[in-house]
């Protein structure tokens, strides 16, 4: 308890929730490093079985096979005997695996939450931008790459990326289309870093924005119904006017 809460019991200082999380990650990183350093070394699969010198291996195998035939046991060199001789040999690789820094972040988390958590943990290990301006520069770089990928991708008449409309190399078209999604993900990830540096939780921020949009849309819908019509039947300028009314209503 004391070790994991240095901002409460120790000399470390945290002025806000974001700094508390940073301290927490640093403590967890130190604990993980200690566990990995103390973990016993598990030999690789090739080291689990005693190797016989090449010159004598054949003779040894022959003697073992003869003995096994007489007793009904598995010959030492057989796969079955190897498994029996080394209990748990099939999980040796898993036992030898060290605990990774990001292993504690479930991949089932919502994407924005996952992005914030994995990047925060990486930052605790020193993998971090120096300033917020550096992060903004990364955002601009990723946006440029997204624009370039979109320009090179096959697109339908409505402007949406669609590998199916491309002529020629289908595989190249699929790759170009996939590149747009990949670059778009990079833009989102970099924007999460902006929020993290500002102390803003990306998941909470987007959830709040979704709620705000739903409230405004509900107002627009109700206003349209009150006129005996629907939003899709309104002219573009009428829809925009309702949107501005909804925004003004929330700010009042």
- Total number of β-strand segments? 0
Give the % helix.
55-70%
Return residue spans where pLDDT drops below 50 for at least 5 consecutive residues.
42-86
Strand content: under 5%
Number of helices: 11
Major sheet attributes: none
Provide the succession of SSEs: HHHHHHHHHHH
Oligomer: single chain
Span between termini: 46 Å
Radius of gyration, Cα only, in angstroms?
30 Å
Overall shape: it is: flat
- Overall structural class, as computed from helix and strand content, comes to mainly alpha
What do the pLDDT scores average to? 79
How would you sum up this structure, described in words?
The protein is mostly helical. It is built from 11 helices and no strands. The chain is flat and about 65 Å long. It starts with 5 loop residues before the first helix and ends with a helix.
